Predict the 3D structure of the following.
Amino acid sequence: MYLETTITEFLQYIREVRAYSHHTWLAYKHDLQKLLDITGNNLPLEELTPRLLRVFLLKEMEKSPAASTQSRLIACLKSFGKYCQQYTPIPKNPCEQLLFPKQEKKLTPVASETLLTEALNISSDGFIGFRTLSCIELLYGSGLRIGELTGIKWNDFTHDFSQLKVLGKGNKYRNVPVTKSCKQVIQHYKQLVESKKGPNPQGGIWISTKGALLGRRTIQKNVTEHLKKAGKEGKASPHVLRHSFATHLLNNGADLLAVKELLGHRSLSTTQKYTHVSVKQLKEIYQKAHPRA
């Protein structure tokens, strides 16, 4: 059994059986292609040794020293190694002993409540303006991932637009609330869509001015530009709005388990990273307010 054949079968497995996101699937495909580039397509699978993998990792670390990039590559290899051990004749996982690099913990980037209030109050003129505002309302008001946002269909909303059914990671659905302000903006946006092209209940809701389905990059660009216009410095991606959603809920007393469910996280530890921002803010308040700080 050859490495190239196994990689092809593994990529099919994580897409069709494990339901990995398209973004993750593309990243793993890219990483495993780099492995094939140094081993050749005809390498027998049993010759994929820990020593060969370490040589591969060292070469990649020289090209991309960032710990986050290395961690993703190792996560890909570990996942591939488990697949090999389970579904191929090799008796041992060749990637089992690979170690993740230590990463410096960074605070999750968020936007302030004041800035987001200003961003959502910026007057939106025309079709593109209301479309962008609708995206921001859903990303921040409901805590959506960009992939979840782009996959929304009109029939995913309840009849009164108070709730939304979202298809998240692992092909799992969850219901999220829709804010009152978002409800108003979305309803107006739907009217604008109707004036251009009758909305298809089964089709995507984000369309161009000519009625074609909108791509993910266009939405990212529109959202980023809108946040910059409102005064956001540094990172201003759609995911910052999801971070802000979680952090602001926790800052205002929301239960951690409830936030976990709203975000669609599998593990509570994933949600806990948002508490670090709250702790930092509490320290800042303490430093400013306590007379002996």
User: Anything to note?
Assistant: The mean pLDDT is 86. The first helix runs from residue 3 to 16. Strands lie at 163-167, 173-177.
